Amino acid sequence: MTFITINDRLAGGAAAALFGLTALFYGTAAQAQDCANRGQLDTMYCDADGDLVADAPTDPAKLQNPGTLVFAYTPVEDPAIYADIWEPFIEHLKSVTGKDVQFFAVQSNSAEVEAMRSGRLHIAGFSTGPTPFAVNLAGAVPFAIMGSEDGRFGYKLQVYTRKDSGIDAMADLKGKRIAHTSPTSNSGNLAPRALFPGLGITPEQDYEVVYSGSHDQSMLGVVAGDYDAAPVASEVVERMAERDLYDPEEVKIVWESDPFPTTSYTYAHDLDPALVEKIKEAFFTFDFTGTALGEEFSGVSKFVPVTYEKDWAVIREIQKANGVKYTPQDLAKE
Q: pLDDT value at position 126?
C-alpha cells in the first residue's frame, strides 16, 4: 500500500492549512454556479434536492473518475500506524473499484478539508464535529459509518475524573480545572457547552476550561492529575484502555450522554456516479472479522449507511447552539 505524507505546503500544520483553505475558499467564490438552493453550502456547490449535501455536477465533463483514489482517515497522532490498520480495507477497495488506492496522512482537520475541496482527496473519514465543515466547505457526502451487526452505531460523551478526585457528580466540577479537547470538537467541547448548562454546570462560568489538544491528552491529563476532569469520546478512551495507555481502575465516569455519530465516511461530491456506487459497494461488503481494522475498532463489525441530513442533525444543533459558522476560520480553531 502506498502511504502519502503531508506535502510541504501542509507541513506547517493548522496555520498553513488555514492559509491554503482560506485562499481556496475565496479564490473559488467567483466560480459560483447558478443555484436555486444551496443552504449553508459554499458557493462552489448546489443542493437542488434539499438533502443538505452538495449535488453532483450536472456537466459530465466536471465529474472525476481518477485512476488512483486517495483515501484519508481523520487526523490521529501517529498516521503511520493507521495506514497499516487500514491496509486490509484499502486492498478490498482496490479490488472492488479496480482502482489504485493511496492512503493520505493528514495532520489537521483543516488540511483534510482543504485536500477534498481542492480535488486531491476522494474518500475520507471525517471526525464527528468537523463533518459539517467538510460537507459545507469541501462538498463531502457522508454515506457510511462503522456500526454493529444489527446496524447500531455511535459513541457517548463521558466525563471522566480520577477515583480519588472527590468529584462524584457534575455539580462537583464547579471551581475545577477541566480539560476540553479543542474548540470545534463535538464531544470534547461543543456538546459540553450545549448540554452541561442543562445539568446545572456551565463551562467557563462554573469551571476553568483548558484545551488539551485531543481526547487522548485529556484522558492522560486526568490520569496524571493535570486536570480535575475531562469530557471525552467513549470510543477513544476505550481504545486507549485496550492499548494499556491508562489504568481504568484509576478513573471513573461522572456522567455520560446518549450516543452521537462517530467518524463519517464520505466521498467527494464530484466523483462519477458509477464510481460512487463501486465505492459504496466496497464499504458495505467489507468484512471486519480477523482484520487489523476490526481489532482496532472493537464493537463494530461492518459499515452501515447514514445520511448527513438525518444522522448529523443533533451535531448541527449542538454547533448552532455554540454559534459555530462553517468557515475556514472556525474550522482552524480545531
A: 96
User: Packing angle between helix 131-138 and helix 313-321, nearest 10 degrees?
Assistant: 90
CB burial string 276-308: b at 16+ within 10 A, e below: bebbbebbeebebeebbbbebbeebbbbbebeb
Residues β-bridged to residue 124: 72, 266
Q: What is the pLDDT of residue 24?
A: 56
Looking at residue 102, its pLDDT comes to: 96
- The domains located in the chain, with CATH, are 2-151+262-331 (3.40.190.10), 157-256 (3.40.190.10)
For residue 22, what pLDDT is reported? 60
Q: What is the pLDDT of residue 25?
A: 55
Q: For residues 103 and 83, what is the distance between their CA atoms, to the nearest angstrom?
A: 6
Contact 124, 144 (CB under 8 A): no
pTM over 0.85: no
Beta bridge partners of 6: none
Residues of the chain short of pLDDT 50, as ranges, are: 5-15, 19, 29-31
The single-letter DSSP state of residue 44 is: T
Q: Given its phi and psi angles, is residue 290 left (phi above 0), alpha (psi -120 to 50 degrees) or beta?
A: left
The identity of residue 198, as a single letter, is G
3-class SS shares of the chain: helix, strand, coil, % to 5? 40, 20, 40
**Whole-angstrom Cα distance, residue 15 to residue 68?**
28
What is the residue-wise DSSP string for 64-126?
A: B--SEEEEE----S-HHHHHHHTHHHHHHHHHHH-SEEEEE--SSHHHHHHHHHTTS--EEEE
CA distance 251 to 301: 28
For the beta carbon of residue 152, count every other beta carbon within 10 angstroms.
Answer: 11
